[in-house]
């Protein structure tokens, strides 16, 4: 489907149509005025590497940078550099002709490959099924989960 809905405490209301029909995509609120749709699968069954930004003020979609790896059913979220306090969009896991054990971080408008250590590889299936990443902090060498001992090393 290309339709979206806003879900609020008081109920749902129609949102903007997606730029293309997608399923299995991830959506991240970058800030109060901008959201990003990442990857997914088209109505024709093609897994996508496409991303799109949505400007809530203008009500317009713009094409974002393509992922390095097409994926659907993946997890995405915002991670914060604990040194610079800069926010990054992170994408991990998903499916493309098999389960993916890779992660990508959006830096300076381009996706860069992250390196996942063995500790977190087993979590990717959980992330894939839950479609969410949360409470991460990132520094220049690793992504660390606050409430456990899991880590993603950046290349």
- Please, what is the average pLDDT? 77
> What is the beta-strand fraction?
over 45%
* Category by helix and strand content: mainly beta
| Oligomerization category of the chains in this entry | single chain
Tell me roughly what share of residues is in helical segments.
under 10%
Q: Main β-sheet: number of strands, strand sense, barrel status? A: 7 strands, mixed, barrel
Question: How many strand units?
Answer: 14
The poorly predicted ranges are: 117-155
Instruction: Give me the strand/helix succession.
Output: EEEEEEEEEEEHHEEE
Number of helices: 2
Give the overall shape. globular
| Radius of gyration based on Cα positions | 15 Å
First-last Cα distance: 36 Å
């Amino acid at each position: 489907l290309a339709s979206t809905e806003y879900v609020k405490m008081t109920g749902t209301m129609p949102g903007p149509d997606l730029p293309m029909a997608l399923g299995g995509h991830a959506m991240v609120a970058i800030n109060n005025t901008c959201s990003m749709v990442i990857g997914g699968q088209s109505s024709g069954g093609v897994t996508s590497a496409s991303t799109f930004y949505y400007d809530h003020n203008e009500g317009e979609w713009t094409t974002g940078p393509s992922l390095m790896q097409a994926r659907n059913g993946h997890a995405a979220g915002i991670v914060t550099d604990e040194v610079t306090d800069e926010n990054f969009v992170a994408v991990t896991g998903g499916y493309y002709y098999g389960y993916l054990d890779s992660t990508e971080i959006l830096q300076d408008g381009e996706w860069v490959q992250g390196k996942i250590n063995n500790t977190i590889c087993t979590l990717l299936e959980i992330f894939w099924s839950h479609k969410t990443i949360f409470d991460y902090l990132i520094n220049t060498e690793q992504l660390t989960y606050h409430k456990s001992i899991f880590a993603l090393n950046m290349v």
